[in-house]
Amino acid sequence: MKTHTNPYKRIIKKTMDRLIPFTVHWELTYQCNLQCPHCYVAPQNSREELSSGEIAGILDLLQERGTLHVIFSGGEILTRKDFFDIARYARKKGFALRLLTNGTLIDETVADQIKDLHPLSVEVSLYGSTPASHDRITACPDSFKRSLEALRLLNGRSVRTIVKSLIMKGNAGEFQSMKALAQEIGSQFLYDTVIIPKMDGSLEPCGNRLDREELYSVLYPEVQKNGEDKNPRGDDLSCCAGVNAFSISPYGDVYPCMGFKESGGNLTKKSLSEIQHSPIFSKIRSITLSDLPDCKECELIQYCNRCPALARMETGDLLGPSKADCLLASVIKNIIDDKRKQTVKENQVRRPI
Amino acid sequence: MDKEIPIKSPSTASQIIDGEAVIIVPSEQMVNVLNSVGCRIWDLADGRRSIAEIAEILTREFNVPYKTALKDAIEFTRDLAEKKMIDFAGTGEEKREG
After folding, report:
1. What local confidence, expressed as pLDDT, does residue A1 receive?
2. Which residue in A17, A111, B66, B84 has a CA-CA distance of 20 to 30 Å to A322?
3. Is this complex scored with an ipTM above 0.85?
4. Are A105 and A78 in contact (CB under 8 A)?
5. What is the mean pLDDT of residues A88-116?
6. Is the CB of B69 inside 8 Å of chain A's CB atoms?
7. pLDDT at A27
8. What pLDDT is recorded for position B96?
9. Cα-to-chain-centroid distance, residue A325
10. Which of A1, A2, A96 sits opposite B24 (nearest CB)?
11. How far is the alpha carbon of B34 from chain A, nearest alpha carbon, in Å?
12. How far is CA A228 from the centre of its chain?
């Protein structure tokens, strides 16, 4: 008998082939104590969020259906008074937890409670490297101080933390200093430059996206000249949304992913199997590159991480290109090309006569 | 060793997919996949059964000699303990005394 570390990929393939919901992203609440302008959340205030009892019932179901990874996000998860009841129950069922939070509600006691959950990671949003820039974006005084303190409290308890940032107009100049800050406090740093529209269809948050020049200057130090930033999927633009992963809203609606707000059904009314075989889930799974009229011949495909949800939100067309992804792919290609040219020039200069 | 009682470490996360156990140890950021026999031992590591009792079950279910099952179960649980996937809750004697 041996333990294996490599067969994990085989397990993942199995979960995809059999539509086992291996990873579930669960937005536990849309309530939040910050007011970030780029946030995609648009709560439907007339609807009741699931109770902890309903959530426990769904966790039971997910455990039976093969889920291992559960990502709890919001809104702000810690605004739910019953958050730790839910999270402890999830751990009791054997799920691996990732917690997405703004960190502002984490004090010593909460940090102790989080440590006892043994989460895979706690991912804290940070939008600046100084109180001024971060608090301006969150519209909440002291949020920077509190988020940073949360990271320190968790790191001090050996909880793996990730600083997650969205790079946008209000903080692009602090990208490198945010990265340095994360390193200094012992957290991993992850960033994204793509801001998604609001779930009610409003494109307002997208006004904070970086333009081409800003993206180029932010990404230039990050992109490798050898092309490691090319899409590792090659020309396979499929994703796991609706295959072995999906998202659950605070109301129990199930979406192919958290960015794709077209529900396959509500878990309080329909079976998981019905939802997984709903028209929208089936449609998402059936898309192949040949179905994408603009993308299939695109020269940027090797650099592109096309998100069908984003394409749908931006243009209403599930099979069309996403403006944000096209821009990002184009900038990555430019940077790689420019770095290669620069290397050739340097080599020519250095070559002995 | 055979009287020791293995129990899943409370920090682990796990799921059984098609008879194989996928186990995550958050502190190590490590995923392990156990085959069907390993998966059964994992399942039986419930803090109530000793390794000897687990070996008896393996003998019945997998049609292997008790001696082989015991040796394998001892080695395997030791390996899992090294990887922080299980703890030892004590020994059978302690259980009976308690």
Report:
1. 52
2. A17
3. yes
4. yes
5. 98
6. no
7. 97
8. 47
9. 15
10. A96
11. 5
12. 21
- The candidate with the shortest Cα–Cα distance to A56, out of A77, A76, A26, A79, is A26
Amino acid A352: pLDDT: 56
Rounded Cα distance between A305 and A295, Å, is 11
Q: From CA A23, how far away is CA B45, in angstroms rounded?
A: 25
Q: Touching check for B26 and chain A: CB below 8 Å?
A: yes
Q: Which of A284, A283, A243 is nearest to A12 (CA)?
A: A243
> Are residues A94 and B13, on separate chains, in Cβ contact within 8 Å?
yes
> Rounded distance, CA A308 to CA A238, Å?
9
What's the pLDDT tens digit per position in B32-84?
999 999 999 999 999 999 999 999 999 999 999 999 999 999 999 999 999 99
B19: amino acid identity, one letter:
G
- If pLDDT is split at 50, 70 and 90, which confidence band does A247 have? very high
Does residue A286 contact residue A299 with C-beta atoms inside 8 Å?
no
pLDDT for position A219: 95
Under a CB-based contact definition with an 8 Å cutoff, are residues A324 and A209 in contact? Answer: yes
> Coil, strand, or helix at residue A278?
coil
Give the model's pLDDT for residue B98: 39
Q: Which of A2, A3, A92 to mutate against chain B (most B CBs within 10 Å)?
A: A3
Residue B21: strand, helix, or coil: strand
pLDDT of A3 strictly over 70: no
Cβ contact (<8 Å) for A4 and B18? no
Angle in degrees, CA A285, A288, A294, rounded to 5: 130
Contact B31 A8 (CB under 8 A): yes
Question: Percentages helix, strand, coil for chain A, rounded to the nearest 5?
Answer: 45, 10, 45
Convert the pLDDT of each residue in A286-301 to its tens digit.
Answer: 988 889 999 988 999 8
A17: its two tokens:
């082939």
Identify the bridge partners of residue A269 per DSSP, sorted by sequence position: none
Inter-chain contact B13–A120, Cβ cutoff 8 Å? yes
Q: Calculate the average pLDDT of chain A.
A: 92
A2 pLDDT exceeds 60? no
Determine whether the interchain pair B15/A4 forms a contact, defined as Cβ–Cβ distance below 8 Å.
no
Cβ atoms A122, A159 nearer than 8 A: yes
